[in-house]
Protein backbone atom coordinates (compact mmCIF):
# COMPACT_ATOMS: atom_id res chain seq x y z
CA UNK A 1 0.00 0.00 0.00
CA UNK A 2 1.16 3.53 -0.83
CA UNK A 3 0.40 6.37 1.61
CA UNK A 4 0.98 9.76 -0.01
CA UNK A 5 1.56 12.75 2.26
CA UNK A 6 1.22 16.37 1.05
CA UNK A 7 1.40 19.55 3.10
CA UNK A 8 1.55 18.00 6.58
CA UNK A 9 3.57 15.79 8.94
CA UNK A 10 0.77 13.56 10.24
CA UNK A 11 2.37 10.47 8.74
CA UNK A 12 2.39 8.43 11.97
CA UNK A 13 -1.34 8.80 12.60
CA UNK A 14 -2.17 8.28 8.92
CA UNK A 15 -0.07 5.10 8.77
CA UNK A 16 -1.58 3.77 12.02
CA UNK A 17 -5.10 4.19 10.65
CA UNK A 18 -4.27 2.53 7.34
CA UNK A 19 -2.86 -0.38 9.33
CA UNK A 20 -6.15 -0.70 11.23
CA UNK A 21 -7.89 -1.63 7.98
CA UNK A 22 -4.97 -3.46 6.33
CA UNK A 23 -2.88 -5.03 9.13
CA UNK A 24 -0.95 -7.33 6.78
CA UNK A 25 -0.03 -4.70 4.21
CA UNK A 26 3.41 -3.19 3.93
CA UNK A 27 2.78 0.55 3.96
CA UNK A 28 5.18 2.79 2.05
CA UNK A 29 5.01 6.51 2.80
CA UNK A 30 5.88 8.79 -0.11
CA UNK A 31 5.85 12.55 -0.52
CA UNK A 32 5.36 12.96 -4.28
CA UNK A 33 2.66 12.46 -6.90
CA UNK A 34 4.48 9.93 -9.10
CA UNK A 35 3.62 6.25 -9.34
CA UNK A 36 0.49 4.20 -8.95
CA UNK A 37 -0.50 1.24 -6.82
CA UNK A 38 -3.55 -0.98 -6.45
CA UNK A 39 -3.84 0.34 -2.90
CA UNK A 40 -3.24 4.05 -2.45
CA UNK A 41 -4.31 6.58 0.18
CA UNK A 42 -3.58 10.21 -0.64
CA UNK A 43 -3.75 12.93 2.05
CA UNK A 44 -3.56 16.69 1.49
CA UNK A 45 -3.48 19.57 3.95
CA UNK A 46 -3.62 23.03 2.36
CA UNK A 47 -3.80 26.48 3.94
CA UNK A 48 -7.12 28.13 3.23
CA UNK A 49 -8.33 31.47 4.56
CA UNK A 50 -7.01 31.31 8.12
CA UNK A 51 -7.52 27.57 8.37
CA UNK A 52 -6.73 24.36 6.52
CA UNK A 53 -8.50 22.38 3.82
CA UNK A 54 -8.08 18.63 4.32
CA UNK A 55 -8.56 16.21 1.43
CA UNK A 56 -8.31 12.42 1.50
CA UNK A 57 -8.63 10.13 -1.51
CA UNK A 58 -8.42 6.35 -1.27
CA UNK A 59 -8.22 3.95 -4.22
CA UNK A 60 -8.22 0.31 -3.14
CA UNK A 61 -8.55 -2.62 -5.56
CA UNK A 62 -10.75 -0.69 -7.96
CA UNK A 63 -12.87 1.01 -5.29
CA UNK A 64 -12.43 4.70 -4.54
CA UNK A 65 -13.60 7.34 -2.11
CA UNK A 66 -12.76 11.05 -1.97
CA UNK A 67 -13.60 13.22 1.05
CA UNK A 68 -12.66 16.69 2.23
CA UNK A 69 -13.26 19.00 5.16
CA UNK A 70 -12.31 22.45 6.39
CA UNK A 71 -10.60 23.21 9.69
CA UNK A 72 -10.63 26.60 11.38
CA UNK A 73 -8.92 27.18 14.70
CA UNK A 74 -6.56 29.45 16.58
CA UNK A 75 -2.97 29.15 15.36
CA UNK A 76 -1.83 27.16 18.41
CA UNK A 77 -4.63 24.59 17.88
CA UNK A 78 -4.65 24.41 14.08
CA UNK A 79 -2.12 21.62 13.65
CA UNK A 80 -3.75 19.26 16.17
CA UNK A 81 -7.24 19.85 14.78
CA UNK A 82 -6.00 19.35 11.23
CA UNK A 83 -4.42 16.03 12.22
CA UNK A 84 -7.69 14.99 13.88
CA UNK A 85 -9.72 15.88 10.78
CA UNK A 86 -7.29 14.02 8.51
CA UNK A 87 -7.66 10.90 10.66
CA UNK A 88 -11.46 11.19 10.63
CA UNK A 89 -11.52 11.43 6.84
CA UNK A 90 -9.18 8.44 6.37
CA UNK A 91 -11.36 6.44 8.74
CA UNK A 92 -14.54 7.37 6.86
CA UNK A 93 -13.03 6.65 3.44
CA UNK A 94 -11.57 3.25 4.35
CA UNK A 95 -14.72 2.24 6.24
CA UNK A 96 -16.72 2.91 3.07
CA UNK A 97 -14.32 0.99 0.85
CA UNK A 98 -13.84 -2.04 3.10
CA UNK A 99 -17.33 -2.29 4.58
CA UNK A 100 -15.80 -2.53 8.05
CA UNK A 101 -16.28 0.21 10.63
CA UNK A 102 -13.73 -0.33 13.43
CA UNK A 103 -15.53 0.19 16.75
CA UNK A 104 -12.56 2.02 18.29
CA UNK A 105 -12.82 4.72 15.65
CA UNK A 106 -9.56 6.58 15.13
CA UNK A 107 -8.27 5.71 18.61
CA UNK A 108 -5.14 3.66 17.87
CA UNK A 109 -3.33 3.92 21.21
CA UNK A 110 -2.51 0.82 23.25
CA UNK A 111 -4.03 2.13 26.49
CA UNK A 112 -7.58 3.46 25.93
CA UNK A 113 -8.37 3.42 29.66
CA UNK A 114 -5.24 5.45 30.41
CA UNK A 115 -6.43 8.04 27.91
CA UNK A 116 -9.86 8.03 29.59
CA UNK A 117 -8.33 8.75 32.99
CA UNK A 118 -6.27 11.63 31.59
CA UNK A 119 -9.27 13.14 29.80
CA UNK A 120 -11.42 12.89 32.91
CA UNK A 121 -8.67 14.52 34.96
CA UNK A 122 -8.35 17.36 32.46
CA UNK A 123 -11.95 17.93 31.28
CA UNK A 124 -14.34 15.95 33.48
CA UNK A 125 -16.24 12.78 32.61
CA UNK A 126 -18.96 14.34 30.44
CA UNK A 127 -16.54 16.07 28.09
CA UNK A 128 -14.27 13.00 28.06
CA UNK A 129 -17.18 10.84 26.88
CA UNK A 130 -18.15 13.38 24.24
CA UNK A 131 -14.59 13.50 22.93
CA UNK A 132 -14.40 9.70 22.74
CA UNK A 133 -17.59 9.29 20.74
CA UNK A 134 -17.78 12.47 18.65
CA UNK A 135 -14.12 13.24 17.94
CA UNK A 136 -12.41 9.86 18.16
CA UNK A 137 -15.49 8.15 16.67
CA UNK A 138 -15.46 5.33 19.25
CA UNK A 139 -18.75 3.42 19.44
CA UNK A 140 -20.87 3.80 22.55
CA UNK A 141 -20.24 0.14 23.41
CA UNK A 142 -16.45 0.50 23.35
CA UNK A 143 -16.60 3.87 25.05
CA UNK A 144 -18.67 2.39 27.87
CA UNK A 145 -16.17 -0.47 28.18
CA UNK A 146 -13.22 1.92 28.37
CA UNK A 147 -14.90 4.03 31.06
CA UNK A 148 -15.86 0.93 33.10
CA UNK A 149 -12.29 -0.33 32.96
CA UNK A 150 -10.91 3.10 33.82
CA UNK A 151 -13.11 3.27 36.94
CA UNK A 152 -11.93 -0.18 38.05
CA UNK A 153 -8.30 0.69 37.36
CA UNK A 154 -8.50 3.93 39.32
CA UNK A 155 -9.29 1.98 42.49
CA UNK A 156 -6.14 -0.10 41.97
CA UNK A 157 -4.01 2.91 41.01
CA UNK A 158 -5.05 4.55 44.30
CA UNK A 159 -3.35 1.69 46.19
CA UNK A 160 0.02 2.83 44.89
CA UNK A 161 2.19 5.06 47.08
CA UNK A 162 5.11 7.35 46.29
CA UNK A 163 7.75 4.67 46.93
CA UNK A 164 5.71 1.74 45.58
CA UNK A 165 7.13 -0.60 42.97
CA UNK A 166 6.45 -3.97 41.38
CA UNK A 167 8.92 -6.69 40.41
CA UNK A 168 8.78 -8.44 37.04
CA UNK A 169 10.79 -11.61 36.42
CA UNK A 170 11.33 -12.66 32.79
CA UNK A 171 11.52 -16.35 31.81
CA UNK A 172 11.89 -16.18 28.00
CA UNK A 173 11.64 -19.93 27.33
CA UNK A 174 8.69 -22.02 26.09
CA UNK A 175 7.98 -25.70 25.40
CA UNK A 176 7.48 -24.77 21.73
CA UNK A 177 6.84 -21.61 19.73
CA UNK A 178 3.21 -20.72 19.01
CA UNK A 179 2.56 -19.70 15.41
CA UNK A 180 1.21 -16.28 16.43
CA UNK A 181 4.06 -15.46 18.83
CA UNK A 182 6.48 -12.59 18.22
CA UNK A 183 8.03 -12.46 21.70
CA UNK A 184 11.69 -13.10 22.31
CA UNK A 185 11.25 -16.64 23.55
CA UNK A 186 13.26 -19.82 23.04
CA UNK A 187 11.82 -23.29 22.65
CA UNK A 188 13.15 -25.43 25.48
CA UNK A 189 13.00 -28.37 23.08
CA UNK A 190 15.94 -26.82 21.28
CA UNK A 191 19.22 -28.26 22.57
CA UNK A 192 20.95 -24.87 22.70
CA UNK A 193 18.12 -23.29 24.65
CA UNK A 194 18.04 -26.16 27.12
CA UNK A 195 21.80 -25.92 27.56
CA UNK A 196 21.76 -22.18 28.23
CA UNK A 197 18.88 -22.22 30.75
CA UNK A 198 20.93 -23.12 33.89
CA UNK A 199 23.43 -20.33 33.25
CA UNK A 200 20.57 -17.93 32.51
CA UNK A 201 18.98 -18.73 35.87
CA UNK A 202 22.30 -18.15 37.66
CA UNK A 203 22.62 -14.68 36.14
CA UNK A 204 18.95 -14.00 36.84
CA UNK A 205 19.44 -14.80 40.53
CA UNK A 206 22.44 -12.46 40.55
CA UNK A 207 20.38 -9.67 38.98
CA UNK A 208 17.63 -10.26 41.55
CA UNK A 209 20.23 -9.77 44.30
CA UNK A 210 21.56 -6.53 42.77
CA UNK A 211 18.05 -5.17 42.25
CA UNK A 212 16.98 -6.09 45.77
CA UNK A 213 19.94 -4.21 47.23
CA UNK A 214 19.00 -1.08 45.27
CA UNK A 215 15.33 -1.30 46.30
CA UNK A 216 16.34 -1.65 49.95
CA UNK A 217 18.82 1.23 49.75
CA UNK A 218 16.16 3.51 48.24
CA UNK A 219 13.50 2.43 50.75
CA UNK A 220 11.09 1.25 48.04
CA UNK A 221 7.88 -0.61 48.90
CA UNK A 222 7.17 -3.83 46.97
CA UNK A 223 3.49 -4.15 46.02
CA UNK A 224 3.38 -7.03 43.52
CA UNK A 225 5.58 -9.72 41.98
CA UNK A 226 4.94 -11.17 38.52
CA UNK A 227 6.73 -14.00 36.71
CA UNK A 228 6.10 -13.75 32.96
CA UNK A 229 7.56 -15.12 29.79
CA UNK A 230 7.73 -17.03 27.68
CA UNK A 231 6.39 -19.80 29.83
CA UNK A 232 7.69 -19.84 33.42
CA UNK A 233 6.14 -23.31 33.71
CA UNK A 234 9.09 -24.72 31.72
CA UNK A 235 11.22 -24.43 34.87
CA UNK A 236 11.63 -27.64 36.82
CA UNK A 237 10.41 -27.61 40.42
CA UNK A 238 13.95 -27.28 41.92
CA UNK A 239 14.71 -24.37 39.57
CA UNK A 240 11.50 -22.63 40.62
CA UNK A 241 12.35 -23.26 44.26
CA UNK A 242 15.80 -21.64 43.95
CA UNK A 243 14.49 -18.63 42.02
CA UNK A 244 11.61 -17.97 44.40
CA UNK A 245 14.04 -18.37 47.28
CA UNK A 246 16.32 -15.73 45.75
CA UNK A 247 13.43 -13.27 45.74
CA UNK A 248 12.65 -14.02 49.39
CA UNK A 249 16.27 -13.45 50.40
CA UNK A 250 16.64 -10.15 48.58
CA UNK A 251 13.29 -8.38 48.85
CA UNK A 252 11.03 -7.41 51.74
CA UNK A 253 7.84 -9.31 50.86
CA UNK A 254 5.89 -8.13 53.92
CA UNK A 255 4.13 -5.41 51.89
CA UNK A 256 3.35 -7.57 48.83
CA UNK A 257 -0.34 -7.48 47.90
CA UNK A 258 -0.10 -10.02 45.08
CA UNK A 259 2.31 -12.72 43.92
CA UNK A 260 1.71 -14.09 40.41
CA UNK A 261 3.45 -16.78 38.38
CA UNK A 262 2.20 -17.08 34.83
CA UNK A 263 2.71 -20.82 34.42
CA UNK A 264 1.37 -20.60 30.88
CA UNK A 265 1.10 -23.92 29.07
CA UNK A 266 -1.16 -26.50 30.74
CA UNK A 267 1.30 -29.28 29.81
CA UNK A 268 3.95 -27.75 32.09
CA UNK A 269 1.77 -28.00 35.21
CA UNK A 270 2.80 -30.72 37.70
CA UNK A 271 1.87 -31.37 41.35
CA UNK A 272 5.46 -30.75 42.46
CA UNK A 273 5.63 -27.34 40.77
CA UNK A 274 2.30 -26.31 42.28
CA UNK A 275 3.50 -27.46 45.71
CA UNK A 276 6.65 -25.34 45.39
CA UNK A 277 4.64 -22.28 44.33
CA UNK A 278 2.30 -22.61 47.30
CA UNK A 279 5.28 -23.19 49.63
CA UNK A 280 6.61 -19.78 48.53
CA UNK A 281 3.22 -18.08 49.02
CA UNK A 282 2.40 -17.57 45.35
CA UNK A 283 -1.33 -16.87 45.39
CA UNK A 284 -2.13 -16.21 41.74
CA UNK A 285 -1.24 -18.23 38.64
CA UNK A 286 -2.16 -18.25 34.96
CA UNK A 287 -2.95 -21.44 33.06
CA UNK A 288 -3.56 -20.43 29.46
CA UNK A 289 -5.40 -22.75 27.07
CA UNK A 290 -5.94 -19.97 24.43
CA UNK A 291 -8.67 -22.16 22.92
CA UNK A 292 -10.61 -25.30 23.84
CA UNK A 293 -10.63 -26.47 20.22
CA UNK A 294 -8.15 -29.33 19.75
CA UNK A 295 -7.75 -28.78 16.02
CA UNK A 296 -6.80 -25.14 16.60
CA UNK A 297 -4.29 -26.05 19.32
CA UNK A 298 -2.49 -28.30 16.87
CA UNK A 299 -2.65 -25.70 14.12
CA UNK A 300 -1.05 -22.95 16.22
CA UNK A 301 1.72 -25.19 17.58
CA UNK A 302 0.61 -25.75 21.16
CA UNK A 303 1.51 -29.27 22.21
CA UNK A 304 -1.14 -29.70 24.87
CA UNK A 305 -4.65 -31.08 24.68
CA UNK A 306 -7.98 -29.66 25.74
CA UNK A 307 -8.11 -32.35 28.41
CA UNK A 308 -4.74 -31.22 29.81
CA UNK A 309 -6.05 -27.66 30.12
CA UNK A 310 -9.00 -28.82 32.18
CA UNK A 311 -6.95 -31.18 34.35
CA UNK A 312 -4.23 -28.58 34.99
CA UNK A 313 -6.86 -26.11 36.16
CA UNK A 314 -8.53 -28.67 38.43
CA UNK A 315 -5.15 -29.65 39.91
CA UNK A 316 -4.32 -26.01 40.64
CA UNK A 317 -7.67 -25.54 42.38
CA UNK A 318 -6.93 -28.60 44.50
CA UNK A 319 -3.68 -26.94 45.63
CA UNK A 320 -5.61 -23.94 46.92
CA UNK A 321 -4.60 -21.07 44.63
CA UNK A 322 -6.81 -18.09 45.41
CA UNK A 323 -6.82 -16.65 41.87
CA UNK A 324 -6.38 -18.52 38.61
CA UNK A 325 -6.39 -16.80 35.23
CA UNK A 326 -7.17 -18.43 31.88
CA UNK A 327 -6.37 -16.74 28.54
CA UNK A 328 -8.45 -17.07 25.39
CA UNK A 329 -7.74 -15.60 21.94
CA UNK A 330 -10.37 -14.39 19.48
CA UNK A 331 -9.58 -14.61 15.77
CA UNK A 332 -7.27 -17.65 15.69
CA UNK A 333 -6.75 -19.30 12.27
CA UNK A 334 -9.57 -21.51 11.01
CA UNK A 335 -11.68 -20.86 14.12
CA UNK A 336 -15.32 -20.08 13.49
CA UNK A 337 -17.51 -17.84 15.60
CA UNK A 338 -19.10 -20.99 17.05
CA UNK A 339 -15.68 -22.45 17.94
CA UNK A 340 -14.74 -19.36 19.90
CA UNK A 341 -18.09 -19.19 21.66
CA UNK A 342 -17.63 -22.80 22.75
CA UNK A 343 -14.23 -21.93 24.25
CA UNK A 344 -15.73 -19.02 26.18
CA UNK A 345 -18.50 -21.26 27.50
CA UNK A 346 -16.01 -23.94 28.55
CA UNK A 347 -13.81 -21.43 30.39
CA UNK A 348 -16.82 -19.99 32.22
CA UNK A 349 -18.00 -23.47 33.20
CA UNK A 350 -14.66 -24.05 34.95
CA UNK A 351 -15.22 -20.79 36.88
CA UNK A 352 -11.67 -19.41 37.18
CA UNK A 353 -11.36 -16.11 39.03
CA UNK A 354 -9.90 -14.39 35.96
CA UNK A 355 -10.55 -14.83 32.25
CA UNK A 356 -8.54 -12.66 29.89
CA UNK A 357 -9.87 -12.37 26.34
CA UNK A 358 -7.26 -11.38 23.77
CA UNK A 359 -7.66 -10.49 20.11
CA UNK A 360 -5.18 -12.12 17.73
CA UNK A 361 -2.36 -9.75 16.79
CA UNK A 362 -0.75 -10.42 13.41
CA UNK A 363 2.83 -9.62 14.37
CA UNK A 364 5.32 -9.29 11.52
CA UNK A 365 7.88 -11.71 12.99
CA UNK A 366 5.37 -14.46 13.79
CA UNK A 367 5.24 -17.70 11.81
CA UNK A 368 1.49 -17.20 11.40
CA UNK A 369 1.97 -13.89 9.61
CA UNK A 370 4.67 -15.35 7.37
CA UNK A 371 2.50 -18.33 6.45
CA UNK A 372 -0.39 -16.20 5.20
CA UNK A 373 -2.86 -18.43 7.06
CA UNK A 374 -6.53 -17.43 7.00
CA UNK A 375 -7.62 -15.70 10.21
CA UNK A 376 -10.87 -14.11 11.26
CA UNK A 377 -11.80 -10.80 9.68
CA UNK A 378 -12.68 -7.71 11.67
CA UNK A 379 -16.42 -8.24 11.64
CA UNK A 380 -16.13 -11.85 12.85
CA UNK A 381 -13.63 -10.97 15.58
CA UNK A 382 -15.94 -8.14 16.66
CA UNK A 383 -18.82 -10.61 17.02
CA UNK A 384 -16.58 -12.94 19.02
CA UNK A 385 -15.71 -10.21 21.53
CA UNK A 386 -19.34 -9.11 21.77
CA UNK A 387 -20.31 -12.66 22.69
CA UNK A 388 -17.50 -12.96 25.25
CA UNK A 389 -18.33 -9.62 26.84
CA UNK A 390 -22.02 -10.42 27.14
CA UNK A 391 -21.49 -13.93 28.55
CA UNK A 392 -18.79 -12.90 31.01
CA UNK A 393 -20.83 -9.97 32.32
CA UNK A 394 -23.90 -12.18 32.71
CA UNK A 395 -21.87 -14.75 34.65
CA UNK A 396 -20.54 -12.34 37.26
CA UNK A 397 -17.25 -11.19 35.73
CA UNK A 398 -16.25 -7.52 35.54
CA UNK A 399 -13.76 -5.89 33.14
CA UNK A 400 -10.90 -4.40 35.12
CA UNK A 401 -7.99 -3.90 32.73
CA UNK A 402 -7.49 -3.43 29.03
CA UNK A 403 -4.82 -2.84 26.43
CA UNK A 404 -4.43 -3.05 22.69
CA UNK A 405 -1.67 -4.17 20.34
CA UNK A 406 -0.63 -3.06 16.91
CA UNK A 407 -1.95 -5.24 14.08
CA UNK A 408 -4.79 -6.63 16.21
CA UNK A 409 -7.49 -8.15 14.01
CA UNK A 410 -10.14 -5.48 13.53
CA UNK A 411 -8.17 -3.00 15.68
CA UNK A 412 -9.86 -4.62 18.66
CA UNK A 413 -8.78 -5.05 22.29
CA UNK A 414 -7.57 -7.37 25.03
CA UNK A 415 -9.61 -7.26 28.24
CA UNK A 416 -9.04 -8.82 31.65
CA UNK A 417 -12.28 -9.97 33.31
CA UNK A 418 -12.49 -11.08 36.92
CA UNK A 419 -14.78 -11.99 39.75
CA UNK A 420 -15.09 -9.30 42.40
CA UNK A 421 -11.91 -8.92 44.43
CA UNK A 422 -9.72 -10.90 42.04
CA UNK A 423 -8.29 -8.10 39.89
CA UNK A 424 -4.66 -8.65 38.88
CA UNK A 425 -2.99 -5.65 40.48
CA UNK A 426 0.27 -6.04 38.57
CA UNK A 427 -1.51 -5.79 35.22
CA UNK A 428 -2.90 -2.39 36.16
CA UNK A 429 0.24 -1.11 37.90
CA UNK A 430 2.29 -1.99 34.83
CA UNK A 431 -0.15 -0.96 32.09
CA UNK A 432 -1.16 2.36 33.63
CA UNK A 433 2.42 3.19 34.67
CA UNK A 434 1.33 4.44 38.08
CA UNK A 435 4.47 3.23 39.84
CA UNK A 436 7.90 1.86 39.06
CA UNK A 437 8.37 -1.66 37.71
CA UNK A 438 11.81 -3.13 38.40
CA UNK A 439 12.20 -5.85 35.79
CA UNK A 440 14.88 -8.55 35.69
CA UNK A 441 15.88 -11.04 33.02
CA UNK A 442 16.36 -11.09 29.25
CA UNK A 443 14.04 -8.73 27.41
CA UNK A 444 12.99 -7.04 30.65
CA UNK A 445 12.29 -3.31 30.66
CA UNK A 446 12.55 -1.30 33.86
CA UNK A 447 9.91 1.45 34.02
CA UNK A 448 10.80 4.26 36.41
CA UNK A 449 7.69 6.33 37.23
CA UNK A 450 7.97 9.69 38.97
CA UNK A 451 5.13 10.01 41.52
CA UNK A 452 2.51 12.64 40.77
CA UNK A 453 3.62 13.08 37.16
CA UNK A 454 3.42 11.27 33.84
CA UNK A 455 7.22 11.10 33.66
CA UNK A 456 8.41 7.57 32.82
CA UNK A 457 12.01 6.58 32.10
CA UNK A 458 13.04 3.15 30.82
CA UNK A 459 16.12 0.97 31.21
CA UNK A 460 16.38 -1.96 28.79
CA UNK A 461 18.00 -5.34 29.32
CA UNK A 462 19.39 -7.28 26.38
CA UNK A 463 16.63 -9.18 24.57
CA UNK A 464 18.11 -12.61 24.02
CA UNK A 465 19.29 -14.95 26.79
CA UNK A 466 22.74 -15.41 25.24
CA UNK A 467 23.17 -11.61 25.03
CA UNK A 468 21.89 -11.26 28.58
CA UNK A 469 24.52 -13.71 29.84
CA UNK A 470 27.45 -12.35 27.82
CA UNK A 471 26.55 -8.72 28.51
CA UNK A 472 25.62 -9.11 32.17
CA UNK A 473 28.25 -6.64 33.39
CA UNK A 474 26.68 -3.95 31.23
CA UNK A 475 23.22 -4.80 32.61
CA UNK A 476 24.58 -4.42 36.15
CA UNK A 477 25.97 -0.98 35.28
CA UNK A 478 22.61 0.15 33.91
CA UNK A 479 21.03 -0.53 37.31
CA UNK A 480 22.73 2.63 38.54
CA UNK A 481 20.12 4.48 36.50
CA UNK A 482 17.52 3.46 39.11
CA UNK A 483 19.39 5.34 41.83
CA UNK A 484 19.98 8.33 39.60
CA UNK A 485 16.28 8.54 38.81
CA UNK A 486 15.14 8.48 42.44
CA UNK A 487 17.83 10.90 43.58
CA UNK A 488 16.90 13.42 40.86
CA UNK A 489 13.60 14.52 42.38
Explain the overall architecture.
The protein is of the alpha/beta class and 489 residues long. The mean pLDDT is 92. The radius of gyration is 24 Å and the shape is globular. Helix content is 43%, strand content 22%. The strands form four sheets. A nine-stranded mixed beta sheet has the order 14-15-13-12-11-10-9-6-16, with helices on both faces.
Keywords:
489 residues; alpha/beta; nine-stranded mixed sheet; five-stranded mixed sheet; 18 strands; 43% helix; globular
What's the SSE blueprint?
Layout: E1 2-6, H1 11-21, E2 28-30, E3 39-48, E4 51-60, E5 63-72, H2 75-98, H3 112-123, H4 125-135, H5 140-157, E6 164-171, E7 173-174, E8 186-187, H6 191-218, E9 221-229, H7 237-250, E10 258-264, H8 271-279, E11 284-287, H9 294-299, H10 306-318, E12 323-330, H11 337-350, E13 354-359, H12 367-371, H13 378-394, E14 398-403, E15 414-418, H14 425-431, E16 436-440, E17 445-449, E18 456-460, H15 465-470, H16 472-478, H17 480-487
Parallel strand pairs: 1-2, 1-3, 6-9, 6-16, 7-8, 9-10, 10-11, 11-12, 12-13
Antiparallel strand pairs: 3-4, 4-5, 13-15, 14-15, 17-18
Shape verdict: globular
**What oligomeric state best describes the polypeptide chains here?**
single chain
Number of strands: 18
Strand order of the largest sheet: 14-15-13-12-11-10-9-6-16
Short description:
With 489 residues, this protein is an alpha/beta fold. 43% of the residues lie in helices and 22% in strands. The protein has a nine-stranded mixed β-sheet, with helices on both faces. A five-stranded mixed β-sheet has the order 2-1-3-4-5, covered by helices on one side. The protein has a two-stranded parallel sheet with strand order 7-8.
